[in-house]
Amino acid sequence: MRRFAQLFHELDATTRTAEKVQSLVVYFRETPAEDAAAALAVLSGQRQRRGVTTTLLREWAAEAAGIPLWLLEESYAAVGDLAETLALILPDGREDAASAGLAETIASTIKPLAAASVEEKRRIVHDAWQRLRKDERVVWHKLITGGFRVGVARTLVARALAEIAEVDPATMAHRLMGLSAITPEAYRALLDTDAQVHDPTRPYPFFLASPLDDAVARLGDVAGWLAEWKWDGMRAQLIRRGDVRAIWTRGEELASEAFPELIAAAERLPDGHVLDGEVLAYADGELLGFQALSRRAGRRRVPAKQLQEIPCVFVAYDLLEADGVDLREQPLAFRRERIAALGLPVFGGEGGGPASACSHADQEDDRPHLFFSPQVVATSWDDLARARETSRQRGVEGLMLKRLDSPYRVGRPRGDWWKWKVDPLEIDAVLLYGQAGHGRRASLHTDYTLGVWDGDTLVPVAKAYSGLTDAEIAEVDRIIRQTTRERHGPVRVVEPTLVFQIAFDAIAMSSRHKSGVAMRFPRIARWRRDKRPEEAGRLDQLRALLPPLPPSRAL
C-alpha cells in the first residue's frame, strides 16, 4: 500500500506526460504481480464499490481525533478534499505497524467493508487507521468511498506497460481493452511479448478525433477527405464473432444488455466482423438526442415500455475486422467499401438526413437497426461549411472530417481525424456557488454553479469546471471567500456579483433540474467583467433554444 500511495502522489503532483509514464514504469517494474494487478484495476477505472459512507467516516474520524464534528467540517471546507482532511486530522498510527501490499489491503479491508455490519465496518476502519500512514490513508479513503481519481489516462498506463513488455503501445492498448478480470495471471500475460489476443468478446482501442481549431482549408484538397455528420449518440463497437454478440462503449463498458435490439440485429452480420459507430436513440423519423439515449445506457434490463419509447439504432462508420481479419492498417476508403458491401441501409438514405432512415419499413419488427453512416458529399470546403450550418436542424453536432487514406489508429493522434463541431450555444450566467477543487487545486474554489434569471429569482442551470486561467481562478477564489453568504462543507453560497459567459453544446428538457433544462458540456467561455448580474441571461432564453420535440414523442 505504501508504494501505491507513493505512485498516486507522484501522478497527482505533475501534469507532464513523460513524468507520469516514468512513474508508472518504475512502479510496475518493481511491484509484485499481485499488487501490480490490483493497481492496474484501480488505475484503469474499474468500477469501485463504496464500502462505507462519508457520513460515518466523518463521525468516526472526529471521534478518533478528539474534535467536534463541526471543526472537521470547517477543516474540510478549508482543505477541499475529504480523504486528505480525514488523513490530516487523525492521530498517527502505530509506528511498528507493517505495511501490507495493495492487493492484501484490498482483500483484508476494502472488500470486507461492502458486506460488513456498521460495527464491523467501524472496527475495520479503526484498525486500518492504526496501520496506515497519512499518505496511505488519503488513498485508502478514496478507495473505500468509491472516489478514487487520479490524473492518468488509460493510454499512459498502456504506454508504461508497453515499455516494460517491449511491445508497441497500440498492441498493449488492445490487450487492455475489455479486460474484465485483472488477475495476477492476466497481468503476467499482458507483459508476455508474444502473447496473442484470443478473447472473442474483446473490442479494439478506439480512434478518437481532435477538435478542429484551425481554418478547415488548411487540410488541403477536399477530395482527400471523407465528411460525415457528427452524431449526438454513444460511440461504440458492435462485435459479431462466433457465438459472441457484444456492444462495447468508448468507456470500455459492456453495454449488450442495454441494447437487446442491436444484439439481435448483429445476427445479420457475417461472422468475424467488428463495426465502429454510434448508438442513437431514434424513432418515427426523428433523432431523440443524447438525453433520451442516456436513459437506456448502463441498464442491466430494459423495460418493454422503454424499448418502445426509446428505440435505438447503430450507425456504422468504420469496419475494424472482417471475416476475422484485422483491417485497421487498411486505408479508410477501403474499410468503407467493405461496409458498403455488407448491404446496410444508408442512414437517412443517400441524402444523409435522418428523417427517412426507416421510412422503407412498413412494420415495426421489420425496421432495420443497423445502418451505414452516409458521406456528406461536397466539392469544396465552402460546400461543407454550408452543410455544417444545418447541423442543429438535423440534430447533429457538426461534421467529422477523416482522411481517406488514414489507417485506424489508437487514442487521439492529431492529423487524420477531426471533429468540426458547430459553434457552441452561449448565455451569460451568474455565479451562485463555489466549491473547492481536488488535488493541486484543493485550496481553491474551482467548481462553479451558475444560474440565470427566472423572473426575479436566480435558478441554477449549469456546473462548470473549466475555462478560466490560473490567474482568473485565483481572483475568483478571493471574491468567493469575500462574498460568501453560507457554507455547506466545501460549498460556499455567494452573493451574486460575478457574470460568466457559458458555452454549451446542446440543451434539453430535464425533470431532474429545478430549472427544467439541462446543458450538455457546459464550460466558461469568458469572464464578463463588463456585465452586472441583473444583465445576465433569462430562463426563457434558454428554453427558446430547446429543440422541438417530435409530435409523437414527449420523453
Quick summary:
With 555 residues, this protein is α+β, with helices and mostly antiparallel strands. The chain has helices at 2-12, 17-30, 33-43, 54-65, 69-79, 82-89, 102-115, 118-131, 134-144, 154-165, 169-176, 184-190, 260-265, 290-294, 304-309, 332-340, 381-388, 391-394, 470-482, 539-543; strands at residues 210-211, 225-229, 234-241, 244-249, 273-283, 286-287, 312-322, 325-326, 370-372, 398-403, 417-421, 425-436, 445-454, 457-464, 484-488, 491-494, 499-504, 506-509, 517-520, 523-527.
Oligomerization: single chain
- Please identify the top-level CATH class of the largest domain: Alpha Beta
Give the strand tally.
Answer: 20
Please identify which CATH superfamily of the largest domain we are dealing with.
DNA ligase/mRNA capping enzyme
Q: If you average the pLDDT, what whole number results?
A: 88
> Can you tell me the overall shape?
globular
User: Within the CATH hierarchy, at the fold level, what is the topology of the largest domain?
Assistant: D-amino Acid Aminotransferase, Chain A, domain 1
Radius of gyration: 26 Å
How many angstroms separate the termini? 48 Å
How many structural domains can be distinguished in the coordinates? 3
Biggest beta sheet attributes: 7 strands, mixed
